[in-house]
Amino acid sequence: MDPVRNPYAPGAGQRPPELAGRGRELEVFDIVLERIARGRPERSLMLTGLRGVGKTVLLNTLRSQAINRLWGTGKIEARPDQSIRRPVAAALHMAIRELAPRHRAPDRIDAFLGVLKAFALRSAPAGPGTAARGAAGSRLRDRWQPGIDVPATSGRADSGDIEIDLVELFTDAADVAADVGTGVAVFIDEMQDLGPEDVSGLCAACHELSQLGAPLIVVGAGLPHLPAVLSAAKSYSERLFRYQRIDRLDRIAADQALCAPAAREEVEYEQKALDLLYEKSGGYPYFVQAYGKATWDHAPRTPVTAADVRVAAPEAEAELAVGFFGSRFERATPAEREYMRAMAGLSLVEGATPPDVADGGPRDDMDAAVSTAEIARSLGRKPASLSPARDALIKKGLIYSGERGTVAFTVPHFGRYLRTQPA
Where do the record's region annotations for Disordered lie (predicted)? Predict the structure, then answer.
């Protein structure tokens, strides 16, 4: 079939041609927006899940919903080596610019922008790691200026304490949104990478906003251990946010993700082809797109058959091995790779059941969490000696600890990939 007409899109954060299986999440967010518009209290939202399940795509779609309701919006991607101060300032600057044309008091907008500029320029107090960035980095920070064409004001959101400053800044932004009868939504991807102080500050700000019923919400997305990260910062975070786990697609949604865009190109799938594609992809959205794209390119005609899928599967798997799995594996040091290989060997022991196979999916779609003590035992090492490798892998986003004393891969199929690689 014509590869130019291939509708599938296996890209990082790239919206698939058919956003299947996420209707509930979209409906919930619509309710959140409507409740806030009516002055009802609502919680900020946290999306959690493994890599490849479409968290970023869903985050962008939720942002589009907010924009369609004339909300001011901004989005950032958290980084472990960067304070949240300047990215949040940029996101709120964008959000307020969206609201400004509808505001009747330009002076009110300028006053907020002055506070925003002061917030952005206020450096956090020196802490561990500050000196390591070097004098050149300090000079670069000193020269940096936000693109805000009003003078910075003092006395509001500029204390240098991120918790105090975020509370004041978010409150002021919410007041601007209330003036025009709408709201502000800040979207944060890779939220588990925020530093402890930034997480604490965000929790405090969201807590204050929820008590005031202010029209500003934070929508975060992160790996499965994001709730634990938030809880470690503020104990009340368990009640502060609405958590939604984003998982693999069920069979009906996975078939829809393949068949709906194909039908628009007048292409059909045989049932056995869909059976095999679900077996290969495990229902993970990224893999559905990857196998769908390869199958389309190899299928000579419609309807697509199981034989077409078998011919195409090696190409899809080779691409995943390089771009999805291999790139992550290459980031690991030899000690970290040894740790992950031990995890892979232990994660499918007899009786270990991945948490998402209850619906009858392929058993090795996701590797079970394994005990850190078992990993140490399998390597003939003391658990304490493996802590540096474990902590580095968590920081790199390759594994996560959902429960104390256990670890699991953040990437579906990663254990299976490692088990096929030579030592």
Answer: 1-20
CA 354 to chain centre: 21
Query: What is the rounded distance in angstroms from the CA atom of residue 121 to the CA atom of residue 146?
Result: 8
Query: 22: Cβ–Cβ under 8 A, 6 or more apart, which residues?
Result: 54, 58, 61, 246
Residue 148 has a pLDDT of 81
* Residue in 408, 46, 52, 409 with CA at minimum distance from that of residue 230: 46
Query: In terms of CATH architecture, what is 23-245?
Result: 3-Layer(aba) Sandwich (3.40)
Q: What is the pLDDT of residue 366?
A: 54
> What's the predicted TM-score (pTM) here?
0.87
Q: Which CATH architecture group holds 331-419? A: Orthogonal Bundle (1.10)
Boundaries of every domain in the chain: 23-245, 249-327, 331-419
Q: What long-range pairs does 153-156 form, CB within 8 A, spacing at least 24?
A: 153/111, 153/114, 153/115, 153/117, 153/118, 154/118, 156/115, 156/118
Q: Is 141 within 8 Å of 172 (Cβ atoms)? A: no
Cis peptide before 227 (omega within 30 of 0): no
Q: How far apart are CA 329 and CA 323, in angstroms?
A: 10
Tens digits of per-residue pLDDT, 357-384? 434 444 444 568 899 999 999 999 999 9
**Which residues are within 8 A (CB) of 77 and not within 5 positions of it... i.e. 6 or more apart?**
87, 188, 189, 190
Distances (CA, A) of 254 to 248, 289, 299: 9, 10, 19
pLDDT of 144: 56
- CB-based contacts of 247: which residues, under 8 Å, 6+ apart? 49, 53, 356
pLDDT of residue 131: 43
Cβ atoms of 278 and 359 closer than 8 Å: no
Q: Of all helices (H) and strands (E), which one includes residue 326?
A: none
CATH topology of domain 249-327: Helicase, Ruva Protein; domain 3 (1.10.8)
Helix pair 162-179, 196-212: axis angle to 10 deg: 40
Residues of the chain with pLDDT under 70: 123-146, 348-367
What is the reported pLDDT for 410?
92
